[in-house]
Amino acid sequence: MASTSLQAPAKICFILIKLYSPYAFLSKYLGAILLSFFCYYAKEIGCNNLTLSVWNDNEGALRFYQRQGMKPQETTMEMIID
């Protein structure tokens, strides 16, 4: 009897920790070029998704990543305790 697996394929994630563009390079496609490179590199090393974090207040970055095809996946909550 042949066995079938009901498990989804393993998710191998490339996590991009920081991606900053100097102000002078905003709207010059540098961010899109860098993100494209990281996606290419992640795929080359066997990853099937790329994850990064963006501050909620950084509306420009949120728009940029959404234009690049990224979608929100989770929300991280924080409370400052003194």
Automatic annotation (TrEMBL):
Residue spans crossing the bilayer: 20-42
Source taxon at top rank: Bacteria
UniProt domain N-acetyltransferase: residue ranges: 1-82
Name of the protein in question: GNAT family N-acetyltransferase
InterPro entries per UniProt: Acyl_CoA_acyltransferase, GNAT_dom
GO MF annotation list: acyltransferase activity, transferring groups other than amino-acyl groups
Organism, as annotated: Streptococcus pneumoniae
Pfam families membership: Acetyltransf_1
Keyword list, A-Z: Membrane, Transmembrane, Transmembrane helix
